[in-house]
Amino acid sequence: MRVLGFDASGQTLSVGYIEGDAVLADLYWQRPKTAGSHLVAWIEMIVKEFGRPDGISVGIGPGSFTGVRIALSAAKALAYAWNVPVVGISSLQAWAYSIKGYQGKVFVSSEKRGPAFYAGLYFLGHNPFPEVIIPDWAVNQCLPDLFPLSEPVAIVGPVAADRSYSYQVSSHPISLQCPILGSRVAFLGQSRLQLGQVDDPMTLAPLYIRPPAISTPRGRIEPEGKGRQ
Q: Which residues does the UniProt record annotate as the domain Gcp-like (predicted)?
């Protein structure tokens, strides 16, 4: 099974392409300013080289409004155009799965928006995919009572650079740096596709760190030609 996977939820745009256990392509770019155009260009290049995929896997966040919206819109459009299934994957789980050469508990955080952010706790072991210990949950100013953990915990994401938060997670924090890999998004999606766990493109929803701000006019807008004379 060939699966195209991509994510634009954070500071990295990632696109990966797999077939079975083989990684055919893995591209990522730090701090993209034009994620939309680069995402389309990379997908076109990969499909031209390896052909259309049998399924699409996309990171649905939590993440920034612009990045998650671009990735999810592209996934839905391509799934419709190619008539292939699509699955949404937690961007935090894909990030944990992108860590190489580490086994143990991993705390992954999204970008912070003020005091609020999303986080997830996973276990990386001998199994091919990270075990979900605590699903993605919202953190507002302080962590739940189960923290800090007494054992060493790898910390990935913006919170890793904040020592005050790191020691709230574990008494032995290990800060790690790695991007979300598109191939890992694809592998997580492949496992769901093989089980027949397909998402409906019409109802597949993003998870934003913060809802988009929508401004509304303060006054009533008069129909054209019926304003004040």
A: 52-104
